[in-house]
Amino acid sequence: MARLTPAFFDQAPCELARALLGKVIRHRYHDQGRDHWLACRIIETEAYYLAERGSHSSQGYTPKRAAMFMPPGTIYMYYARGGDSLNISARGKGNAVLIKSAVVHFDRTSPRDNLKLMQRLNPVKSSGKLRLEAKLCSGQTLLCAALGLKVDRWDQQQFDTQHFYLDDVGYRPGTIIQTTRLGIPAGRDEHLMYRYIDYAHAAQCTSNPLRKRNQQEDRDYVLHPLSATG
């Protein structure tokens, strides 16, 4: 395992979005007198550039968007559909990568005993029931809820190896799916293929292009073997 350094994030957004697939997010969460390293492995990302209209930063600098104009590796968090959302600034002012979805990760640092806590942090809102492990981090606000990440704590902050950091555990996707981003309004560069998905976990991503009706390979999405994506 190797904790990601600030230099890792000094990549163009699309390059960073691909490179982040398979990396593990770890957040130290205090509960009932104990600290727990909650963790998930990234399976879906979206890249955003200052120059394209789908990005928050394309609307100009504001104090709330300041993190996108700060050095690569700065945490940018905002509220999306009533939940917290995690982004990381990339190379170039106004550029960033959105962490779109993940899968729960367990190892010696983050043992399986954490599952019940993560489920308690992220219940099914309509019923209060425990969310299934397979769907616990299947969305940008879901993964933040499961990890206990909050806008008011981490927006515009740097990663902190004592509390919140990203880890390279040696996992690499065998194939990456490249497709269009989600939720981009018409006329705001919605056609750009800036979303990246770990093929092995496509069923757990926010929206699986392989299962959508009328979606065609090489038109609506592209498959990249690892050797082709680096």
Automatic annotation (TrEMBL):
This is Putative 3-methyladenine DNA glycosylase. GO terms for biological process: base-excision repair. Keywords: DNA damage, DNA repair, Hydrolase. InterPro entries: Formyl_transferase-like_C_sf (IPR011034), MPG (IPR003180), MPG_sf (IPR036995). It is an enzyme of class 3 (hydrolase). GO terms for molecular function: alkylbase DNA N-glycosylase activity; DNA binding. Belongs to the DNA glycosylase MPG family. It holds the Pfam family Pur_DNA_glyco. It comes from Thiohalophilus thiocyanatoxydans. The keyword Hydrolase applies. Its EC number is 3.2.2.-.
